[in-house]
Amino acid sequence: MKLLQIARVGVALIGWSLALSVWALGERPLRLIVPAPPGGTMDIVARVLGQQMSIDIGRPVIVENRPGAGGAIGLQAMLQAAPDGNTIVLAASNVLAETPQVMKMPFDPLKDVLPIASVARSGVVLVTAASYPAKDFQGLIAQLKTRKGKSSFASYSPGTVSQYAGLILNDRVGLDMQHVGYPGSPPALQDLLGGQIDIMFDGMVTSMPLIKAGKLRPHAFTGKSRSRYLPDVPTTTELGYPDLQFRGWVGFIGSSKLPPDALAKLHAIIAKAAQAPAVQQKLIDASLEPELSVDTPALLSETKALSERNAAIVKKFNIQAN
């Protein structure tokens, strides 16, 4: 069995090397579009991966920021380019599975685009200000019940899992909390710290620095298993809320018209770059969970399932974008 496994790995490495050498013969830069502003998590991840990819293939990798419209502007720019693999997008799965539920896109996010590969997973954590009276999840629910009709929860944007999770908890426990939507996590967390908001389901990437600084208290993690960064924090499944599971992928997206050979080359490039120690460390520094997958059909199936789940939540709670 071990010999067979070694042989398979050897064949895979030979295939990757051939794909990389063929790709390196091209002269055009690889264009990597990030549908987010410079300086954010996706931008940082894209530049680290882009730098490593450039080293591996011997070609420039140009990171291009195209923020706006929930990721639609960046994805549309990619779709307007030739579907030859020279223009791809780096983003989180929410641009395909969340935003389209509340915002009309100029393309079909499940037919016109394709998840090429994922390099990491991102989780969502339920947080309060460290000064909030509740010390754990059970205490938090008890505290919120004493403030029924007066408490509130923030989201980093309407129509995202940050809002979905708050609405589901609100509904399950009967808390009658008011939803307050914000244009991003930073202003929402600022009001949470200031006491204007009671709770928030936020991404690990933005909450972890404040958790480490002792300014936020984590009460629950929305993954199937506990986060490597918060091993003492229970999951929502452990706490009796299995429907409160929100964990997305971060990775590369391309046109559904990509030829098989171009897709194979991209798989090789991404796999090699994502496993570089410097890239792995940068993902960890950003509180992402490194997890490489070049199984495009599986990622597409997962994204479709997430989209269907999210569509049902949006319909149930009549969620609308601002």
What would you note in describing this structure?
This protein is α/β, with parallel strands linked by helices. It is 43% helix and 20% strand. The protein is built from eleven helices and ten strands. Strands 1, 2, 3, 4, 5, 6, 7, 8, 9 and 10 form a ten-stranded mixed β-sheet that branches. The chain is globular, with a radius of gyration of 21 Å. The N terminus is likely disordered.
Keywords:
20% strand, single chain, disordered N terminus, globular, 10 strands, 10-stranded mixed sheet, alpha/beta, 322 residues
Task: Please state the overall shape, judged from the principal axes of the Cα atoms.
Answer: globular
- The assigned structural class equals alpha/beta
Count of helical stretches = 11
In percent terms, what proportion of residues is strand?
15-25%
| C-alpha-based Rg, rounded | 21 Å
Oligomer: single chain
**Residue-averaged pLDDT, rounded?**
91
Query: From N to C, what is the helix and strand string?
Result: HEHEHEHEHEHEHEHEEHHEH
Give the uncertain stretches in residue-range form. Answer: 1-15
Separation of the first and last Cα atoms:
56 Å
Give the % helix: 40-55%
| Largest β-sheet summary | 10 strands, mixed
How many β-strand runs? Answer: 10
Would you spell out the secondary-structure blueprint of this structure?
Layout: H1 2-23, E1 30-34, H2 41-57, E2 61-65, H3 72-80, E3 87-92, H4 94-97, E4 113-129, H5 137-146, E5 152-155, H6 161-173, E6 178-181, H7 185-193, E7 199-203, H8 204-212, E8 216-221, E9 247-255, H9 260-274, H10 277-285, E10 289-293, H11 296-317
Parallel strand pairs: 1-2, 1-3, 5-6, 5-7
Antiparallel strand pairs: 3-9, 4-7, 4-8, 4-9, 4-10
Helix pairs in contact: 1-9, 2-9, 2-10
